[in-house]
Each structure stands twice: as C-alpha cells, then as structure tokens.
Amino acid sequence: MINICDYRGHIRNWRGLCYELGIDNTLSREEREKAIIVKAYEKWGREMADHFYGMFAFALYDSDKDKYFCLRDQFGTKPFYYYITSDNRLLCGTNISKIIDQDGFVKELNVDMLQIYMTLTYVAGEDTFFKGVMKLMPGHWLEFENGKLTVERYWTPTFKPDESKSLEDWADEIHTTLTNIFPEVKDDDEVAESFLSGGVDSSYVLAMSDAKRADSCGYDEERFDESRVAAKTAELLNVEHSVANIQPKDFFDIVPFVMYNMEQPLGDASAIVFTLGCKATAEHTKLCYSGEGADEFFGGYNMYRNAERYGDNLKTFYVGNTNIMKEEEKQKILKHYDPNVLPINLVKYIYDETEGLDPLTKMSDVDIQIWLEGDIYLNVDKMSTACGLEIRMPLTDRRIFDIASRMPSKYKVNEEQNKVAFRTAAAKVLPEEIAFRKKLGFIVPVRIWLADERYNADVRDKFNSDMAAQFFNIDEINAIYKDYIGGNSDNWRKVWTIYTFLVWYEEYFVKR
Predict the structure, then answer these.
(1) Confidence label for 489 from pLDDT (cuts 50, 70 and 90)
(2) What is the pLDDT of residues 111-167, one digit of tens each?
(3) Is the pLDDT of residue 385 over 60?
(4) String of DSSP letters for 261-317
(5) Strand partners, 62
(6) Which end of the chain is more exposed for a tag (fewer CB within 10 A), N or C?
(7) How far apart are CA 155 and CA 134, in angstroms?
(8) Where is the site described as Important for beta-aspartyl-AMP intermediate formation found in this chain (predicted)?
(9) Residue 417: what are its φ and ψ, rounded to 5°?
(10) Quick one: DSSP state of residue 413?
(11) What is the domain partition of the chain in residue ranges?
C-alpha cells in the first residue's frame, strides 16, 4: 500500500490527470491531489513528474516494499529535506523542523555553510546549516529501500535558441501560453488576490488574472516606495488596491519570526517586507498570485545586459544574483575559514552544462538552478505558509520556461531594455509605460534603518555578543558596521547578512 507521508503544492493540470488516471474530479482539492500523486506513481513511477504542471514536493511510502519515494518539482518551488540517522533510517519532509523533532536526529551546525552564506546571503546547493540535513534539489527524486539511498536528477534546464522567430512571434507565444495556463492556476470556487509592485511581472499577472484586489507594500520613504505606481496600475485595471505600509519598528520586530519559520538564515531583506505583506494580505484572503520566475527565465535583471562583456570569465566569479563578500574579507572576519569551501564550486556543473552557450544564458541558468531555489522560492513558500497564505506563481511553469529556453538572448535583453519579449507580451494587456517601465527591484529602506539608533539596538548587541564571538572576529565585523555608519552604505548587505545569521542561530541553537 502506498501512503503519502508529506506533501506541499498545487497540481495545475489536475483535470486532465483525473481523467487519465480514473480519479473522481469532484473530490476536494486535498483528496484529489493525494489520489493523483498515488495513482501517478503507480502508473509512471520515477517519471511521474513529467506529467505534472505546478508546484510540488512530496514523500511516498510503499509499505509492501518498505520503500520511500520522494520528489521535488523542476524548479524547486517547494522545499524538501532528508537526513540519514546513525542507525540508517531516513527522516524526510518539507520542513526541517519536523526532521529535527524526530528520534535519531542529532542537531549540529554545519559551519562551512556560514562561509558560503557570507557571499551569497542564502543557503545554496544540497547542504544546509544543519549538518547531515540535505536538500533534495529541484528536478530530483529520491528512493530509500533496504537501507540504500538513491538520489537522481530527472530534469535539467536545457537551452536551444531558435533564430527563426521574430520578436512579435515570441511575444505572441508567451501571451498565448499564459492565457492557457491561467485557468489552471485556481479552481472555479476559489477567490484569489494578487501581489502588485510597480514592475511588469506582477502587473502582467494581475492583468491576466481574475483577481479583484491587488496587494502592495509601501514605505514612508518616497524614493523606495513603489506603491504609488502600483496604485495607478490597479486603478487602470479596475481592481481594489491595499497597501501595507512598512514601518522600521515592525520590520525589525519580525526578524526572529522570519528566521525561525524560514528554517535557514536568509540575508535577503525583502523577505522581511514580504512577510509583513503576507500577514496583511492574509487578513482578507487565503490565496494570492505572485509573479516570480520571469526575471530569471526572460533576462529581467539589469546586470544581464552586461553579460557579453563578461564572456568566458563568468565561470570564475558569477555565482548568482548576490556576491557580497570576497574570500579575503571572509578570511578576516570568520573564526573558521576553509580555503576549499568556495561558492564557485556550487555552480561548476552548471557551466559544464551550458558550455558553448552565450553568457546571458549561462547567467540565467545559474540563477534558475541556484538563486531561485535558495532564495526566492524558499522565501515565498516559507513566509506565506507561516502567515496562513497560499501563493501561486503562474509565471513559474515548465511551459513558460520552454519558451524562454528556445528564445535567443537578443529578445531577452538589449542595450536599453531587459525582458524585451516578455514586456512586449505584457504590452498586449498593459499600457507601454507600465510594460516597459524600468526595473527597480523589490527595494527596502533597510540601508537607512540599520543606521538609525532607534531601531538597530539588537543589531549592535548581537555584533558584540558571545554568540557572535563563536563565529566572527568581533573587531572585524564591528569595523564593517562602523564603516557602514560612517557613510559606506554599500556595507549594509554585509551587516544584514551577519545579523540574520546570528538571529537564526539564536532561534535554533540557543533558544531551542
């Protein structure tokens, strides 16, 4: 008999799967998705994910064979972890906290991960901050039978540029595909709202959706605040608009909640704002759309426009969207430094896979395989769940990626613009000033707030704590902080990354 031990996700093409697998499509969502997973495993086994569209991670147990089968979706939108005990038992699931609480788990810090974290600001690759707890990576399955663990990759992003199509052809294909996907994103009896920033991704999702209300975050600091632009988009699309005004005290107060529920430290300051946004949105809905995925698929980051000038040098330094601290600086601040633990080692296999492709494709593939999984999708899943909100991401779909994988880079970025074809598609339902608005990113005024003594007391305390002294040379990290206070605002990311690690460590190794 096959039982589902753990499951997180949303299967989009459930109607077709119910028909093909002989499942009653009038079942509740929970019942039908569990039935789909079991029946799909019985029919297709390890190849079952090839038949799914959506977001999913799960563990199955076959009691007849005493065998576990675990699977994570192609992009890693849902987390999954596993741990082998000293007596060779498998502990696994979508939450590290559930693994920690089981018999046989030995809690020990993986100190090497701190060295990676200080560069990337997130936990990349298979390892975690808990020694022995491994991530099942995107596009992988796991089997555990007769005491033997097998982990294999079932899906790899591949890129085969097609030069035969025009810009309009690509825009038409994006728009048509998204039009076909949207009816699958939610059931007819569900009501969803949509997150909305000032950017094209969330605006396009809102315009294509049936959402009647949009939700944004805003700040008193006008130069950081995109909610005013979002309000104009919402008015144009004739939807209600809610704004969660983020105050610095609320921002700092919720950091322990975020680090605890994230289960891994995350130095992305936007995660704190996102959490506050989720809390506010969950007061009036339990389901929300969000626009993640398009930047990495279609060349959305401004740095991608510099890809050609990097050339083959990429493989010596590009480890993804964030790279905040050089090795020499880490040697100075860390008590334990291993010269063999280098972030670039995490992405060598990606450069091998993309050998012969253009630099932009290489950069975006690194971000698709490392950054999205380790930062963006982890944040979306963990924080929405912690706040009682479910988020679905229509742009993160194999059918959307398939278009991006065939699209030549010249239709992704040029000297003036990023996401060229994607923006052209969005312009079919949005005014050009919105579709082609310059990308700002999800910016946060934390670079200002960290220097304000009204809010940074806990930061200063932790930088001078016995806890920090276990890992850092106190004088060195305080020198970084002093330099930041003195006007080097670029140092705020380093300060924040150190601080978030210390908050997380306190939650899991001091309080627990």
Answers:
(1) confident
(2) 999 999 999 999 999 999 999 999 999 999 999 999 999 999 999 999 999 999 999
(3) yes
(4) HHSS----THHHHHHHHHHHHTTT-SEEE--TTHHHHHT-SGGGGGHHHHGGGHHHH
(5) 2, 67
(6) N
(7) 19
(8) 292
(9) -145, 150
(10) B
(11) 2-153, 167-326+359-435
- CATH number for domain 167-326+359-435, candidates 3.40.50.620, 2.40.37.10, 3.40.50.300, 3.40.980.10: 3.40.50.620
Structure tokens at 159: 């890129």
User: Helices 200-208 and 227-236: crossing angle, nearest 10°?
Assistant: 30
What is the C-alpha separation between 109 and 222, in angstroms, rounded? 41
Please name the residues in contact with 222: beta carbons below 8 A apart, sequence gap of 6 or more: none
pTM: 0.96
Interatomic CA distance for residues 178 and 75, integer angstroms: 18
Q: What is the pLDDT of residues 3-13, one digit of tens each?
A: 999 999 999 99
Dihedral, 448, 454, 456, 462 alpha carbons, nearest 10? 170
Q: How far is CA 117 from CA 237, 262, 291, 407, 474, in A?
A: 41, 15, 26, 33, 18
From the number of C-beta atoms within 10 Å of its C-beta (0-12, 13-18, 19+), residue 510 rates as exposed
For residue 7, CA distances in Å to 45, 61, 248, 263 come to: 17, 12, 36, 18
Rounded Cα distance, 194 and 208, in Å: 11
Picking from 283, 116, 268, the residue whose alpha carbon sits closest to that of residue 193 is 283
Q: Are 100 and 44 in contact (CB under 8 A)?
A: no
pLDDT digits (tens, 9 = 90+) for 190-222: 999 999 998 999 999 999 999 999 999 999 988
Cα-to-chain-centroid distance, residue 127: 16
H-type alpha helices, 305-372 = 307-310, 314-317, 327-333, 348-353, 359-366
Helix, strand, coil share (%) of the chain residues, nearest 5: 50, 15, 35
Q: Across the chain, how many H-helices and E-strands are there?
A: 25, 13
Strand 81-84's sheet: what is its strand order? 90-93, 81-84, 134-135
CA 124 to CA 117: how far, in whole Å?
8
Q: Which fold has domain 2-153?
A: Glutamine Phosphoribosylpyrophosphate, subunit 1, domain 1 (3.60.20)
Best CA proximity match to 45, nearest among 152, 146, 126: 152
- Positive or negative, the CA dihedral 380, 382, 388, 390 is positive
Structure tokens at 16: 């077709």
Place of tokens 């028909």: 19
Q: Which residue has the tokens 């220097």?
A: 451
- Can you list the pairs that 327-331 forms with residues at least 24 positions away whose Cβ atoms lie under 8 Å? 330/115, 330/118, 330/119
User: Residue 501 belongs to what H/E stretch?
Assistant: helix 492-505
Query: Which tokens in the block code for residue 92?
Result: 């696994």
Which pair of structure tokens corresponds to residue 432?
């050009």
